[in-house]
Amino acid sequence: MLVRLKNVSKRFGDVVAVNQLNLEINQGEFLVLLGPSGCGKTTALRMIAGLETADEGDIFIGESRVNEVLPKYRDVAMVFQSYALYPHMTVAQNIGYPLKLRGVKNTERQEAILKTAEQVRLQGFLDRYPKQLSGGQRQRVALARAIVRRPQVFLMDEPLSNLDAKLRGKMRAELKHLQHELAVTTIYVTHDQIEAMTLAERIAIMNQGVLQQVGTPKSVYNDPGNIFVAGFIGSPSMNFLNGELIDGDFITEKCRIQKVGKGSHGDVILGVRPEDMKMVVSGQSHLEAILYSVELTGDQTIVTAKLGDDYFTVREDKEYEEAIDQHVKIWVDASKVFLFESSTGKRIRFN
Ligand SMILES: Nc1ncnc2c1ncn2[C@@H]1O[C@H](COP(=O)(O)OP(=O)(O)OP(=O)(O)O)[C@@H](O)[C@H]1O
Ligand SMILES: [Mg+2]
After folding, report:
1. What confidence tens digit (pLDDT) does each residue in 44-58 have?
2. What ranges do the domains of the chain cover?
3. pLDDT tens string 268-300
4. What CATH number was assigned to the domain covering residues 3-231?
5. In testing the pocket of ligand 1, which one of 5, 9, 10, 12 has its CB within 8 Å of the most ligand atoms?
6. Burial 57-85 (b: 16+ CB within 10 A, else e)
7. pTM for this entry
8. 43: CA distance to ligand 1 center in Å?
């Protein structure tokens, strides 16, 4: 592997920003560090970059332990959310700046600038200043300035979050293609789970400084290890319902879902994804609720129903229509549900 964190912790006063983090990133891998605001993502990234010192633990890049190595000797390039371009320099000068610092000769530098500008599709903008560029173009300059250095590792901290939704989608595809082209090891920080799912080879999910789970997008989605991961990955989010497991059936005052597990387990939380429920008119149903809202997104309809204080989100096809406040019935695919221990949030597995 190329980057390795071993029991790395960082405190700011009473706050444990990163708590005993163990993480390995392979050569050429695109790893996304995902979690809610304040969970320690930026702190973890800054420790790898050398912009923050770890209180405990070891950080390795390649074979070397780099805890005491200055940022400029770590061979990493960081891309920030704010782009941090030099306003008085043109696009070409911004891109070429890291090479200038390194003392690369002018002709060689110009060649590298041109090649990199082509990679991020900025050929036509080399003489412009940052203020004459759109957000997406500025972001590409920041990327180019990282690429031109040919670092061992890219560290990216929410690089797309200043862009509007459409541009973000487009830049996501470009980043993915660029990664395919360059195959540089990348650690990418975001709180946006869609960005994580679409970009990552593996996702590392953090909460309150603690690593929750590491895995491919598919595995964290299909096989979450705890209720935090289950609820954080997926949009709309997984539905949760408190109840008991009795002889393999999930039972609450409001419903009974048969054969969701084995044996009995006291207080549990049942989780079911919106696509694993269905609004039904006749036949078997598990929940009877009141229709709360119907949102057509174009290719699908997001249906929310209310039962007491609980809301359920069901992903329906685009033809679904029903009036708000009507009584509705919901069927749950018992083969697709997840069960969690109420007290710890840990997944309960049956095989
Ligand atoms: N320089 C600092 N001084 C004091 N506390 C800090 C400092 N930097 C970060 N923290 C605290 O450490 C915790 C983790 O912060 P961090 O910036 O790593 O979170 P994050 O996951 O990047 O969040 P966001 O998604 O909002 O960027 C937070 O509680 C934050 O307030
Ligand atoms: Mg951050």
Report:
1. 999 999 999 999 999
2. 3-231, 236-348
3. 999 999 999 999 998 899 999 999 999 999 999
4. 3.40.50.300
5. 12
6. bebbbeeeebeeeeeeebbbbbbebebeb
7. 0.92
8. 6
